[in-house]
Specification:
Layout (H helix, E strand, L loop, with lengths): L10 H10 L3 E5 L4 E4 L5 E6 L3 H12 L9 E6 L5 E6 L2 E2 L2 H11 L19 H21 L3 E4 L6 E3 L5 E3 L3 E3 L1 H10 L10 H7 L3 H4 L4 H10 L6
Antiparallel strand pairs: 1-2, 2-3, 3-5, 4-5, 6-8, 7-10, 8-9
Helix pairs in contact: 5-8
């Protein structure tokens, strides 16, 4: 079902190989493209560069399962720091139920328990508490690792559901892309010290820049930056 990828396969090449194997494009966000398998049971998330989701996916693969976390089957590296994540196929969630899960987890740069005395929106308290702890651990790790760390992105749009209606949190963390863009544009190599030249070149290949009129100007600005190649 999964095509094979050579170590130097780019994200664009991986998408083409998946499509030739019968997978179909079902969505594109700022950082990645998502394709559904021919039987519609699996999804492949393809990106040339997304360090925040890589942190999340690695944790899902080795951590304890949680009924509210997306089920990830495997992660296949591509060229540089690109990768394909194979996960369960999910669908748009009921908006009210998704909002209730968000309220139960908390919002913003940290996740915290609802205020004392407030109504608990979801009954699976152990699973919610465990998920909150897992996300807070990842937030701390990301904050230590990246100068451009954005924090938590827990909102209804990042809650999907299985075909059977089980809610899943899918993309709760982010590196702040606009800060990277500003640093490239302003020639601030010091703010980009967590990333290599190849990382930044691949950053400018994520889906958001396919829609941007500034991409070529940013590539020129990157050429003028003294960022190490590795």
């Amino acid at each position: 079902m999964h095509p094979s990828f050579a170590p130097e396969t780019t994200a664009d090449q991986a998408r083409a190989l998946l499509e030739s194997a019968g997978w179909r494009l079902v969505g594109a966000g700022d950082w990645a493209w998502v394709l559904a398998s021919p039987d519609d049971l699996w999804a492949a998330r393809v990106t040339p560069f997304d360090p925040a989701f890589r942190l999340f996916a690695d944790a899902c693969l080795v951590g304890s399962p949680n009924r509210f976390l997306v089920r990830i089957d495997s992660l296949v590296p591509l060229r540089h720091k690109g990768y394909v994540v194979y996960m369960e196929r999910l669908h748009p969630a009921d908006e009210d139920r998704a909002a209730r899960l968000v309220r139960s987890l908390g919002r913003g740069g940290t996740t915290s328990a609802p205020p004392q005395g407030s109504r608990a929106d979801l009954v699976e308290h152990a699973a919610i508490d465990d998920l909150r702890l897992q996300i807070n651990d990842l937030l701390a790790t990301g904050g230590r690792r990246f100068r451009t760390w954005g924090g938590a992105d827990i909102r209804p749009g990042n809650i999907l559901q299985t075909a059977g209606g089980q809610l899943r949190l899918t993309d709760p963390l982010f590196v702040h892309g606009p800060t990277i863009v500003t640093a490239i544009r302003e020639g601030r190599a010091d703010a980009l010290g967590d990333f290599s030249r190849a990382d930044l070149e691949d950053f400018l290949r994520i889906p958001a820049f396919a829609r941007s009129t500034d991409t070529e100007a940013l590539r020129s600005a990157l050429d003028a930056l003294g960022v190490e190649s590795s």
